[in-house]
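queue> pop job 88
queue> type: inverse folding (structure -> sequence)
queue> payload:
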């Protein structure tokens, strides 16, 4: 379908609707939110301007639809050229014009016109609003370049500086080297005369059409659609959405649940009560290279040059304590840098006096730092400024404290190696592996508009960094021998005799890829390229005297004999210089770079396990470290405890000494006291060195410890005791600076302070629902959130057997063994695979109540095969699957029907592409596409290593989890939450007379590893919508589609919503009275946009279905769930903890102090954390026209965490949201597999729409296939 036909179809469906009622996917509301014409990156051609008497008018949102319609329809008024190109036009939504005049050119023209009129100069920050333009582009009719949503002419955020003059022969973005003077004054812009209100007159939006007839047609169509003319209706801004208000009553103030108090990681922030005036500058840092200039974008490159510029230009810049720099592009100062300059440039020199760069400052505006922001923009700026003030001392390169810290966004890490002993209660860095280490630090984020006022969230964070100056030789030893410690002589001897294996070569190349290396014998750094194929002893080159000499012999000739000549050499990356050979360096002379480098690549499975092991901390250890970082006095608490017993020992020894001297005892008599102590004491003292008492251990106050006796006995002169030290309890202070210091010059200068004590909050442990199985009932009275099968309950029968129509499903099994195509040594196949584990798994399914196909008293596996991509084509796998399905199709009786179930035994983890160099596509994706979508076969994957460990023990968690997933996939209902029990709100939610449809929406984005292969569908995002199909809310189905990477908005939401509504009506034979949506993965700044789009899509879906279901008029509730935060709760009372590490109990609700004053929000911890500290989920009830009760959504959200079929415990999210997350990942695998199959069939299916269709499950299989 051409674009014109699609637009016409859209208008035929919505022509009777007012533009404001149209779905957002069909309404063109102008440029996207946040669009900045100056930073779009497109260079536009200037359109032909209309005559002076052309009508200038503001336009409504529907005007974009009108003109887009004209441009796509190819009407008579358009030019012949546009008509010829109508079939090849791109969609309006796909991007802005590439051929229209640029924002810069248009502003420059207005400036020239203004200067000709001799208009007075205005302030730089009173920037004119851009004209709304409609211009031609290649392959389409019109494209618009207008003011973005929420554009403010006085806002510096919409202005991006570009040099005004460019030397001839340079591109548009090239930088022109300024003159030799340190700073130059630039011309200020000239604007039109002021209006009556004192603001510069902003030109009215100007519409450029190609002909008068086009304007008339647009006006006529606009009248038909909106009932008003384009000339009379102004540009309609997006209306601010009013979200749901918090109920007057809160659960914490009622008798519902168990009341308690929890410790939070929030502290109060105090700001200046007086107004502080700040001058705002845009900062651009340009670095001079040998051939060209480069505008720096990375913080680690910008920061040193900027502060070097400040240091070299102290007469220009204010004192550094009066400046706040965000390490990127913005600077706030308390005094004006130069009163008469709007733009200045300052050169930066190195130690030899050479210019290395230039810092360009452009005055933007004047802002206020105040404790009482008047709007959201001022509140955002206040948060940004407080963050900068608190961390300025740690970031400013002109202070000594900055060398101890590394700041990345809101996180401040402690640089490895800068800590002394006893600084913190545990190490703040740890080694992960492969020259990667973990650093701990502090997360500091200011939260305004909370019920407790302005608070700061402080948390312990950790991240991975590359080890500085790590010897490459040590990395080779680690890869070859698995040891990081200094190698013994035997290992070093082996390393000098033998070379590197191909496996170690591959690992070292992967680890060092893209990293900077440093020569140890010369001050030179370069980026790693590759390893040579030959070792240094066999790698030859032609020397200056035309001699052919090896690398090893060359270094020996200059007095640097290689100790390891059998190791390969390193070749730098980058192109080779003309007429020169690339240099080659032996590995033993190389280390990693000394600069701090954050590791951003994906961790291997082994490294990820090591990182989690060291970074995850139980609640009390985490809280202790947070308190130590916030309040340095807490750091020495442990030292004071240790010193307590030592001080008592000194005093006791002094008393003994005085008494002995008074009695005239000799030294020999005193020495005899040592023999009376325990013989083990000497060993303990020698090993510890000093007296040490652990926290919480009892302290003996009756007499001296054995260490004190030892000190007494081994002394010949006053027992070796310093009397002055014995009478003092002072603890030596540390040189390590504080994370937070209210006395530093920035905090004092900007009148800002933070409290050191953490806030407590009222909490409620919510009631739990009962779980009804086929033969038992479970009630979580102790709030453990776990109902694992114990020996007292070896098997819980399922609540409902899977059926197809009126017939019971019988599982008919087959086995597929998938070999690793990249490893010929792994030779497990269906012939040597033991069947015992498979039959045991099938027996367990039958015990739970789901029938399995039996023969001779045991499960009958009707067929099996082996598949290996390296030796077999995909057609072989397809033929086997079709044969299996056809054989099962014959197994039908009057009351039973056989369903095929394939057990896939994988010899390796082949779910995703590992890199672009993968020779074979992932087997998992191919099988999921064939079974779930193309052929229609139930399937369950098991790793071979896991398969071997399955046994008959009822406590085996692996086999029980497999059983649960297989039951859910075929459509069996394992349990339901009790309707009509003690949980009154759940009873209301599952009322058959007023049923509820609960949806979960999530978008799965590609990981850093997936993005590396942009030719794979792994690099795209997948959106999934999951909802229940029954009144009991126990069975769920999904709809998924592929979309562009990073897009949080679900594409074609109307279609997906209709699918979910129709599925519920089909399976439950009733209309829903309520629709509840749980949405995940959205930042607070995107709430309005995402909610508005998805709410309109849902309304449109209901309107389109209403002609077929006249009574369809459900209430709508929309709840956002966010997990990307650093809020943590710590139990104060022992009775409020659960699990092995002491986390808060599942169901802990907090709606006090730290919640928002703008939204109806709450924090809920619904999962029992067995490892690390539990993270609560932050829920926002944005929209609710049901409004059941003040406690309804909190209790229902917790109850839904009991409804996840794959595991016997509560989960951190409501079940629909977790299902949506899992469904998105499985859908991505199906899409990848479908593309592989289509490409093998010579069909290119790298198309979002086609790929989305290929993800839909086969209609012959019905169940929760996405698990």
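queue> result:
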């Amino acid at each position: 379908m051409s674009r014109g036909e699609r637009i016409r179809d859209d208008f035929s469906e919505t022509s009777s609707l007012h533009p404001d009622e149209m779905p957002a996917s069909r309404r063109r509301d102008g440029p996207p939110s946040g669009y900045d014409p100056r930073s779009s990156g497109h260079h536009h051609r200037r359109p032909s301007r209309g005559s002076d008497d052309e009508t200038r008018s503001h336009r409504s949102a529907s005007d974009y639809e009108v003109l887009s319609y004209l441009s796509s329809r190819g009407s008579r008024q358009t030019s012949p050229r546009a008509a010829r190109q109508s079939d090849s036009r791109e969609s309006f939504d796909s991007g802005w014009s590439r051929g229209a005049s640029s924002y810069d050119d248009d502003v420059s023209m207005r400036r020239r016109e203004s200067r000709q009129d001799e208009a007075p100069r205005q302030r730089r920050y009173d920037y004119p609003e851009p004209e709304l333009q409609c211009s031609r582009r290649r392959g389409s009719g019109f494209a618009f370049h207008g003011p973005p949503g929420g554009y403010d002419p006085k806002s510096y955020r919409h202005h991006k500086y570009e040099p005004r003059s460019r030397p001839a022969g340079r591109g548009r973005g090239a930088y022109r080297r300024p003159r030799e003077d340190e700073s130059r004054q630039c011309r200020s812009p000239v604007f039109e005369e002021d209006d009556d209100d004192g603001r510069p007159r902003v030109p009215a939006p100007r519409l450029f059409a190609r002909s008068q007839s086009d304007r008339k047609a647009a006006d006529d169509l606009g009248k038909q659609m909106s009932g008003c003319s384009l000339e009379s209706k102004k540009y309609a801004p997006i209306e601010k959405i009013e979200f749901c208000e918090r109920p007057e009553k809160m659960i914490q103030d009622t008798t519902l649940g168990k009341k308690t108090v929890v410790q939070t990681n929030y502290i109060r922030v105090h700001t200046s009560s007086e107004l502080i005036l700040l001058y705002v500058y845009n900062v651009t840092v340009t670095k001079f290279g040998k051939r060209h200039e480069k505008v720096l974008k990375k913080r680690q490159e910008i920061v040193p040059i900027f502060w070097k510029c400040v240091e070299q230009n102290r007469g220009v810049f204010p004192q550094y304590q009066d400046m706040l720099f965000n390490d990127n592009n913005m600077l706030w100062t308390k005094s004006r840098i130069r009163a008469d300059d709007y733009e200045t440039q300052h050169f930066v020199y190195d130690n030899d006096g050479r210019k290395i760069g230039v810092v360009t400052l452009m005055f933007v505006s004047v802002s206020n730092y105040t404790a009482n922001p008047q709007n959201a923009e001022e509140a955002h700026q206040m948060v940004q400024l407080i963050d900068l003030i608190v961390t300025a001392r740690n970031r400013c390169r002109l202070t000594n404290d900055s060398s101890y810290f590394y700041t990345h966004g809101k996180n401040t890490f402690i640089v490895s190696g800068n800590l002394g002993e006893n600084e913190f209660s545990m190490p703040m860095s740890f080694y992960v592996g492969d020259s990667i280490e973990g650093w701990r630090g502090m997360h500091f984020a200011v939260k305004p508009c909370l019920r407790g006022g302005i608070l700061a969230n402080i948390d312990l964070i950790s991240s991975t960094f590359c080890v500085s100056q790590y010897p490459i030789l040590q990395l080779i030893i680690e890869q070859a021998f698995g040891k990081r410690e200094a190698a013994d002589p035997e290992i070093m001897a082996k390393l000098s005799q033998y070379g590197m294996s191909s496996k170690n070569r591959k690992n070292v190349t992967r680890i060092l890829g893209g990293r900077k290396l440093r020569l140890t014998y010369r001050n030179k750094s370069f980026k790693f390229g590759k390893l040579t194929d030959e070792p240094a002893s066999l790698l030859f080159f032609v020397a200056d005297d035309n001699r052919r000499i090896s690398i090893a012999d060359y270094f020996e000739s200059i007095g640097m004999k290689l100790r390891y000549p059998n190791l390969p050499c390193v070749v730098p990356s980058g192109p080779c210089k003309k007429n020169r050979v690339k240099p080659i360096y032996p590995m033993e002379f190389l280390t990693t770079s000394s600069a701090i480098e954050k590791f951003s690549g994906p961790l291997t499975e082994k490294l990820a396990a090591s990182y989690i092991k060291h970074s995850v901390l139980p609640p009390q250890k985490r809280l202790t470290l947070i308190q130590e970082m916030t309040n340095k006095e807490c750091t020495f608490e442990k030292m004071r405890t240790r010193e307590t017993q030592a001080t008592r020992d000194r005093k006791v020894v002094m008393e003994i000494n005085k008494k002995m001297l008074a009695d005239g005892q000799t030294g020999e008599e005193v020495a005899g006291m040592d023999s009376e102590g325990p013989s083990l004491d000497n060993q303990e003292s020698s090993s510890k060195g000093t007296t040490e008492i652990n926290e919480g251990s009892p302290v003996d106050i009756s007499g001296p410890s054995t260490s004190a006796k030892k000190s007494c006995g081994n002394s010949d002169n006053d027992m070796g005791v310093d009397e002055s030290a014995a009478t003092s309890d002072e603890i030596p202070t540390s040189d390590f600076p504080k994370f937070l210091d209210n006395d530093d010059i920035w905090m004092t200068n900007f009148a800002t302070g933070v409290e050191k004590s953490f806030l407590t909050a009222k909490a409620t442990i919510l009631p739990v629902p009962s779980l009804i199985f086929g033969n038992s009932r479970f009630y979580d009275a102790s709030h453990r959130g776990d109902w694992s099968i114990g020996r007292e309950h070896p098997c819980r029968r399922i609540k409902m057997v899977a059926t197809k129509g009126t017939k019971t499903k019988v599982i008919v099994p087959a086995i597929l063994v998938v070999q690793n195509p990249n490893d010929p040594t792994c030779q497990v196949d269906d012939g040597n695979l033991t069947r015992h584990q498979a039959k045991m798994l099938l027996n367990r399914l039958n015990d739970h109540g789901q029938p399995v196909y039996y023969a001779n008293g045991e499960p009958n596996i009707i067929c099996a095969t082996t598949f290996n991509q390296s030796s077999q084509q995909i057609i072989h796998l397809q033929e086997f699957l079709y044969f299996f399905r056809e054989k099962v199709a014959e197994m039908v009786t009057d009351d039973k029907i056989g369903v095929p179930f394939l057990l896939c035994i994988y010899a390796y983890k082949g779910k995703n592409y590992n890199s672009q160099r993968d020779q074979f596509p992932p087997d998992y994706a191919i099988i999921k596409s064939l079974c779930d979508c193309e052929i229609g076969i139930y399937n369950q994957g098991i790793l071979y290593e896991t398969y071997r460990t399955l046994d008959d023990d009822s406590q085996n968690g692996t086999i029980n989890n497999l059983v649960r997933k297989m039951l859910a996939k075929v459509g069996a209902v394992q349990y339901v939450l009790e309707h009509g029990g003690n949980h009154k709100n759940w009873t209301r939610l599952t009322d058959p007379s007023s049923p509820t449809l609960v949806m979960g929406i999530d978008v799965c984005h590609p990981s850093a590893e997936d993005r590396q292969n942009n030719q794979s569908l792994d690099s795209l995002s997948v959106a999934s919508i999951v909802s229940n199909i029954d009144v009991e809310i126990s069975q769920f189905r999904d709809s998924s589609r592929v979309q562009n990477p990073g897009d949080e908005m679900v594409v074609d939401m109307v279609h997906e919503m209709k699918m979910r509504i129709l599925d519920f009506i089909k399976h439950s034979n009733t209309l829903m009275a309520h629709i509840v949506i749980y949405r995940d993965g959205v930042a607070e700044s995107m709430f309005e946009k995402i909610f508005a789009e998805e709410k309109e899509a849902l309304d449109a879906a209901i309107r389109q279905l209403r002609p077929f279901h006249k009574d369809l008029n459900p209430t709508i509730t929309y709840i956002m769930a966010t997990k990307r935060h650093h809020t943590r709760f710590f139990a104060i009372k022992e009775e409020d903890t659960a699990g092995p590490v002491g986390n808060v109990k599942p169901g802990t609700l907090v709606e006090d102090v730290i919640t928002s004053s703008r939204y109806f929000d709450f924090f809920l911890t619904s999962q029992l954390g067995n490892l690390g500290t539990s993270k609560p989920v932050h829920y926002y009830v944005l929209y609710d026209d049901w409004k059941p009760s003040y406690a309804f959504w909190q209790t229902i959200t917790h109850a839904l965490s009991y409804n996840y079929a794959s595991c016997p415990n509560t989960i951190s999210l409501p079940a629909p949201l977790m299902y949506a997350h899992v469904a998105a990942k499985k859908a991505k695998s199906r899409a990848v597999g479908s593309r592989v199959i289509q490409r093998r069939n010579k069909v290119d299916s790298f198309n979002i729409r086609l790929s989305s269709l290929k993800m839909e499950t086969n209609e012959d299989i019905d169940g929760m296939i996405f698990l």
